[in-house]
TrEMBL record:
NCBIfam families: transpos_IS1595
Name used for this protein in its record: IS1595 family transposase
Highest taxon listed in the record's lineage: Bacteria
ISXO2-like transposase domain sequence ranges: 129-275
UniProt xrefs under SMART domains: DDE_Tnp_IS1595
Length: 291
């Protein structure tokens, strides 16, 4: 794992807005590239009166922040970079109040910045089908249970997690745990022929008929893992359950509450970190390149 940038290293690398803007230009277009207007492979120099670079051959302007989360922002680019740095170095997420304190901006600005960064995180990962052995489990987040027993609860957001062993984590918001809903998610996310481990939820009974090798663990019977001698596979959902434990703990401790409307963005944030945690400070560069 690559070590993450320290705060001191971050500010040494990005001491001001000019450095940040040049970095965005470099990762998006390159300081030397073929001009879209004159077709010349040209160098581009910084313009003094706007966030733009001009072609040395014809003077055509390139605005590196156009079409990004930085477009038209009045917040200094260095603060945006530092907010992204905080998101990539944390384990439990960054709340709007924490961004407000760290950046010295209003809560409204901090909240909007956080949502834009989560949206950016959700745009990075590719959407190749999960393969091999995939664990699946659904969870209920947010809201309060109306009683002491039972899985469902009014006001809670239902989420479904899929974790390829040794591979990517996916998490999606679902409206219910009916057979048609779960089947649709599996068909969209998991390649046919994959081995799938789930709990005993009845709705998962469809998987074998759809071309998946399906194994279950019965948590109600204290069956947490078992070995299938016919296929040589060990069935459990430990990895995806670990993701849900971290997610729920982080939401309760950092954000207190998340709404159904924005639940997907928080899921995207946590799955991004889960999928790229081995990258260390390269995770920051990946996000900046994604703008």
């Amino acid at each position: 794992m690559t070590n993450a940038l320290t705060v001191r290293e971050f500010f040494k690398r990005f001491p001001d807005d000019e450095t940040c803007l040049t970095h965005i230009m470099d990762v998006r277009y390159g300081m030397k590239h073929t001009c879209r207007k004159c077709g010349t492979e040209s160098t581009f120099h910084r313009m003094s009166d706007r966030r733009a670079f001009a072609c040395a051959a014809c003077g055509d302007h390139v605005y590196p922040t156009a079409g990004t989360i930085f477009q038209d922002t009045r917040t200094p680019l260095q603060l945006w970079f530092y907010a992204i740095y905080l998101f990539t170095t944390t384990r439990h997420g960054v709340s709007g109040k924490e961004l407000e304190r760290q950046l010295g901006v209003t809560y409204k600005t901090a909240w909007r910045m956080g949502q834009q960064i989560r949206k950016l995180m959700g745009s990075v990962d590719n959407f190749e089908l999960l393969q091999g052995h995939v664990e699946m489990d659904e969870a209920y987040v947010g809201g309060k249970r109306s009683g002491k027993r039972g899985r469902g609860a009014e006001g809670k957001t239902i989420v479904m997690g899929l974790k390829e062993r040794g591979g990517a984590m996916r998490a999606v918001v679902i409206p219910n745990v009916k057979k048609e809903t779960l089947r649709g998610v599996v068909m969209q996310q998991v390649a046919k022929g994959a081995t799938v481990s789930t709990d005993e939820l009845m709705s998962y009974g469809l998987l074998s008929d759809d071309g998946y090798k399906h194994g279950r663990v019965k948590h109600s019977a204290k069956d947490w893992a078992h070995y299938d001698y016919r296929t040589g596979e060990t069935h459990h959902t430990n990895h995806v359950e670990s993701f849900w434990r971290l997610f729920k703990k982080s939401i309760a401790g950092t954000h207190i509450h998340i709404s159904q409307k924005h639940a997907k963005r928080y899921l995207d944030e946590f799955t991004f970190r889960s999928n790229h945690r081995a990258m260390g400070n390269a995770m920051f560069d990946l996000l900046i390149a994604a703008v």
